[in-house]
Amino acid sequence: MKFGLRLRGGLLATLIMFGAPVFAPVGAVLVSSSALAQTVQSISVEGNRRVEVETIRSYFKPGPGGRLDQAAIDDGLKALIETGLFQDVKINRGAGGQIVVSVVENPVIGRIAFEGNKKIKDEQLTAEVQSKARGTFSRAMVQSDTLRIAEIYRRSGRYDVTVTPEIIEQPNNRVDLIFTVNEGAKTSVKSIEFIGNTAFSSYRLRDVIKTHESNLLSFLSSGDVYDPDRVEADRDLIRRFYLKNGFADVQVVAALTEYDPEKKGFNVTFKIEEGQQYRVGTVDFRTSIQNFDPSTLRSFSRVNVGSLYNVESVEKSVEDMQIEASRRGYAFAVVRPGGDRNFDAHTVSVVFNIDEGPRTYIERINIRGNTRTRDYVIRREFDLSEGDAYNRALVDRAERRLKNLDYFKSVKITTEPGSSSDRVVLLVDLEEKSTGDFSVSGGYSTTDGALAEVSVSERNLLGRGLFAKASVTYGQYARGYSLSFVEPYLLDYRVALGLDLYQRTQLSNSYISYGTKTLGFSPRLGFALREDLSLQLRYSIYQQEITLPSYLANCNNVVGSPAYNPSPAFINATTGVDPILTGNLGCYGDGEASLPVRKELANGKTLTSALGYTLTYNTLDNNKNPTDGLLIDFRQDFAGVGGDVSYLKTVADAKYYQSLVSDLVGLVHLQGGILNKVGSTDLRMLDHFQMGPNLVRGFAPNGIGPRDLNPFGTQDALGGTKYWGASLELQMPFWFLPKEVGLKGAVYADAGGLFDYQGPTTWSVTNEMTTTRNSTCTPSTVNPASTGTCTGLVYDNGNVVRSSVGVGLIWASPFGPLRFDYAVPLTKGKNDRTQEFRFGGGTSF
Hints:
This protein has about 850 residues and is an alpha+beta fold. It is built from 13 helices and 36 strands. Helix 1 (about 10-15) crosses helix 3. The longest helix is centred in the N-terminal third of the chain and has 17 residues, at about 140-155.
């Protein structure tokens, strides 16, 4: 439906502006010179129903002497038309030269409805259109709303959308406005090409940008939907990527988009001029500030001579130096980087100039757009406040922190002049987004079997910046629940307080004969020492107990007892016949759990109270899919602050990623741990390290290290107090597959060891004696049913180096990260258990 608006008086205004002869506008009567003597009160109004007479008269502004001339009448006519309140406005001459304004009012909108819209909800469209229920109907506004709705659909990738407005007239000059939407099919990106890239392959650059090509799994994400704003942002991402890798002259000349009607999608082409790759030649520091030694800021520079020229390192160095200068009392110091290129040597000489900036103070910080998030949650991300010296580095840091909160769709901090020349006002413009999540997660692995989890979380609880999460897990071998709460600013300090309450049940499976039940509570404090260094302090208290199937702990040497099921040692002691030779193994006929397991079962519930900390150093370029950087975790836990257990456990884990040639990524992984006995309390088997494919791939869970050698028992893994591991891995993409599939391969070599079991090997117990081939059991009296001492647990405690080589398939799937590994052990212990194929993964949907 097309609309035409009858605008009266526009031609007259145009002719007056250009000094042309004046003619009456269409539909209006030229006011004679006698009317020019009229005043505003002489104007009569006809046809108005809702708009007051005085309101209409107010649009006619008299000239000198209170008289209305022709220009004032024409201006009033134009002003009335522009209000949008009237379909038609006419000015006529009445009796005696009186001015008569005849109006036809626009109808009132009774209701606004949307039909045919499935992808975008009514509430969102209602918020976007200018026409409102109980507001004035305007055809020009309806036409604008029609274009706005179409634009919203185009932004969501539906370029075939058509929007048709329909007007239904109702009594009493009211209308209903209905927008009928034909959404059309999603318009996706069919191909992404790069022109001019020689240093990096198109495959690698597709990993940098946010736009993706359409594929079979695109229905699970929106990255393949064509969005011109996102394509423009991708240009900057490509440029930043090149600048990080030494290409100081790079230009992303254009991002060309072309609609292909045959494919019904867009082809996107990025044109790149790479230029030379530069390294850092020299790093110098200069200043114009008196009594300030610029070389003292050298330790804050992240730019090193000989390294690739990295713009991000320069920017971070500038920020750190400027903040440090401010801390030293130079609040207005400004650090400006400079660089001289040596085109022949392909080097850049970096100079950091520290100068006195303008003395400008922050007058106010105005926050706009936060309808839910409290002001103080936003203000606490600033290291400055009203009245402080204006420091651009601190403002940029605050903007980055606000973006990292993940509470907002967009964050932009700008400045405007204050009340005087040395004052500025900070404007913080925000657009909030949903921060609540409900997820149903599922997964399967060769270790844990099938697993499902339902969780509800909120990252910005009550708009106060609090985090809360509740989850329930149910699986083949693992079940439980957890409750978590985090206050990121404890007592208004940049210290995060976390509280965790959890209950976990691990069932017995093919890798362990016993199950465990754990109920625990853990408060923790987190400190960001630097952007790449963090510290966590924690306290853990948990109760743990072992569960066993009855047939694995059913030895009973009490003759006549309903549960009488003697051990081989009891049979031998009472009958003199070797049960092994006769095959009469008694309670060992159906297996028996290892001595440390049964001892732990007899001890019942055990309480562990421990203090610990974790120091983390992280310089990874991407936490989910790293290609460069270092991640180091160092953890220590001291148990013995009350409770039944005491030990000191130390663990270190380091991963180093390095991008190699042709999109290859190298990974070096080193890990190690040691468990020390503290005081006179013996170490439990449950506190030992248990290792398998998490240390050396190709081995089963709990498949490495000391093991019970009782040939008639379950031969449980006992664990060790020391372990070490080293791994080399090379990850490579499959260039023949689309980048969006998310598949890459890996080849690796692992080596490691787990040794030095220090758990229980003896046990004084009533009604139980183990087989003589596995231990020495001495009855305390003639009656074998009384308490005896079973000693001499026979187990494998050799320090053997385990090693393997293998290949892996890594899939960043829409169902979550999945990994398949096939590894072949090269060296192993005599009693180790292998598992060449391993699979694991999960999802949220």
